[in-house]
Amino acid sequence: MMHKTQSGPFQHCLVVFILLLFSGIIFYIYYKPTVSWAPCPEITVSTHDVCMDACFDIFKTENLIQNINNSCSINYTLVKQQISNKQFDDTEEKNRKLHQYDTIILIWVWPFGQSFDVGSCGALFGITGCYLTADRSFYDKAHGVMFHLRDIYGDLPNLQKMPRPPQQKWVWMNMESPDNVARLRAPDLFNLTSNYRQDSDVWVPYGQILGASEEDKVFQIPEKNKLACWIVSNWNNNFKRVKYFNELSRHIKIEAYGRYFGRYVSDENYPGIVSSCKFYLSFENSIHKDYITEKLFNPMKLGTVPVVLGPSRENYEEFVPKDSFIHVDDFKTPEELAEHLKRLDQNQEMYEQYFNWRKNFVAKPSYFGLEHACRICDHVKRNKGYRVFKNLDKWYWG
Ligand SMILES: *[C@@H]1O[C@H](CO)[C@@H](O)[C@H](O)[C@H]1NC(C)=O
Ligand SMILES: *[C@@H]1O[C@H](CO)[C@@H](O)[C@H](O)[C@H]1NC(C)=O
Ligand SMILES: *[C@@H]1O[C@H](CO)[C@@H](O)[C@H](O)[C@H]1NC(C)=O
Q1: Residue with CA closest to ligand 1 atom 8
Q2: 295 CB under 6 A from ligand 3?
Q3: Cβ distance 375 to 127 under 8 Å?
Q4: Alpha carbon nearest to ligand 3 atom 1, residue
Q5: Rounded to an integer, what distance in angstroms lies between the CA atom of residue 59 and that of residue 252?
Q6: Residue 242 DSSP label
């Protein structure tokens, strides 16, 4: 009797303790994808590969990134293991998991052959209930199918004959400008479009300016030891940007990188180089409305003032604050632009004005492929009605 009355409160404590322990474990399992217990210092952003940023975030969530000598690196052995494990996931297991999801999106081919973690729509975009898969055995069940334009030209005859479930939406996904990708010549194949253009059904710009968290607001302009920089992978003498660069570089020193200049920049070195320049030439390879790429959003994220060549200033101002960048059209000639950059180089206070926006905002490049699939899922979930996208070639290529 004595024993029983004494152990009463103790048992209560034990029960409470066990409950706490379990909820702690569940909390950890649940939130693991977004929480990084030992955060890596800086995430690498790639020059030519828009997927890279996304990959890094994904790999980090999978604990595939290692902190070696205080810098991030990916363990590719582990990455390969993860990817092959995913592909051989057995179907029964998938069917069981499927019950948690209300919308299935089939990724017809991995964009540019790059796979990505398909479990992040909730953690990254707050879009829940999505099951993304590249396993075509889900075709009949899929609510939407994402087709990356670059990867389907050879597949067209097959696609045109394929029977479709009545409510399934086919989504044309493409981030290349019309100058960089050929006409499709397959009329009325798709129900929806996903593109950088604001008038596409599932709009995914190359990047966004988001509200800053308290943590983001503690920002310092990185140390600078170069005036203006440019990294170019695709050199073509007929491009407007090449002509402009040739003229501009006669009046101001530009640190030029990239294969053409015999100065290849690795993904690892990219952030360090860009952030050490006062100005970065965010010159687009072709000029189209809304075609404002990671060439703008990466330098903005890394603390460098972009000098843009692309669509009109007005168009840029739809995406980023008007005092956050310099537009080549603001000047009559490249020489006048060079004079302006030299003036800013001599006047720190004037230079710092270009970072005023950073007090309230941050720049976030988009997640290539994954973000499209998640936003397509969200769109398909909300819009179950009939829709056909006619004259796609005319809309995109004119
Ligand atoms: C880490 O730093 C040490 C000492 O500086 C060096 O010997 C080692 O090679 C570095 N390791 C890697 C993986 O870079
Ligand atoms: C990467 O992960 C594998 C598997 O856990 C491990 O054996 C290997 O040592 C790791 N590689 C490096 C460079 O740490
Ligand atoms: C999608 O487009 C195709 C081709 O035009 C059409 O046959 C199909 O009925 C459409 N489906 C939906 C759900 O709108």
Answers
A1: 69
A2: no
A3: yes
A4: 191
A5: 40
A6: H
Cβ 363 vs Cβ 300: under 8 Å: yes
According to the model, what pLDDT value does residue 11 have?
66
Res 4: pLDDT: 45
Residue 63, ligand 2, Cβ within 6 A: no
Quick check: CB of 75 below 6 Å from ligand 2?
yes
CA–CA dist 319, 207 (Å, integer): 8
Q: Which residue has the higher pLDDT, 158 or 44?
A: 158
DSSP state of 68: E
pLDDT at 172 over 80: yes
Q: Is the model's pLDDT at 260 over the cut of 80? A: yes
User: pLDDT by residue (tens digit) across 104-137?
Assistant: 999 999 999 989 888 889 999 999 999 999 999 9
Active site residue 93: no
Q: Which helix (H) or strand (E) is 187 found in, with range?
A: none
Q: Is the distance from the beta carbon of residue 384 to the nearest atom of ligand 3 less than 6 Å?
A: no
Q: Look up the CATH superfamily of 207-365.
A: Glycosyl transferase family 10, C-terminal domain (3.40.50.11660)
Give the nearest ligand 2 atom to 76 CA.
Answer: 1
Q: How far apart are CA 55 and CA 44, in angstroms?
A: 10
Q: What CATH class has 103-204+370-397?
A: alpha beta
pTM assigned to the model: 0.73
**Predicted pLDDT at 72:** 53
- Is-contact 340 332, C-beta < 8 A? no
What residues does each domain of the chain span? 43-99, 103-204+370-397, 207-365
Which of the following is catalytic: 176, 284, 294, 371?
Answer: 176
Which pair of structure tokens corresponds to residue 67?
Answer: 């902190």
